[in-house]
Amino acid sequence: MPAEIFNPNPVVFSPTKSLGRKSELLAHSLWIDEPTSSDDEVEDLELIDQDEIFDLIRSIYDPEHPNTLEELRVVSAPQIRIEQNRITVEFTPTVPHCGMSTLIGEPLHPCSHQSEHAVNKQLNDKERVAAALENPVLLDTVEQCLRDAGRRGLPIM
What we know:
By secondary structure, this protein is mostly helical. Helix content is 32%, strand content 8%. It has seven helices and three strands, in the order αααββαβααα. A three-stranded mixed sheet has the order 1-2-3. The protein is globular.
């Protein structure tokens, strides 16, 4: 947990019901270059949709609170766009001045932060991100946020 709390009293919502696709997600590789035995199989592949991506990230914990990003409505399925080989996930911090945005935004992009441009610039700087993850305190915080990521798609209890 960070020393400074940016939003001491966030609104917490009930998680939505899982789509129950966990077994389907784990049964198929998400890698495009996986060898296939025929062209017919390639045509039969089902594309990943925004609900499946949401099921993968919904259980990530907020670095500031013992709640998931879904429970705090930081992420939702409509904030996910899939275009060819690129998935964009925008997130809404619980407060416009959230100091945890760069940490939450490691794989995401904020859409309603008062410093949205600056945060996205930091997140797109690979050297800066790599250096940040060498910091044991930040790395521990990231690991705590992902502690239940294996529960993807399952309801949070």
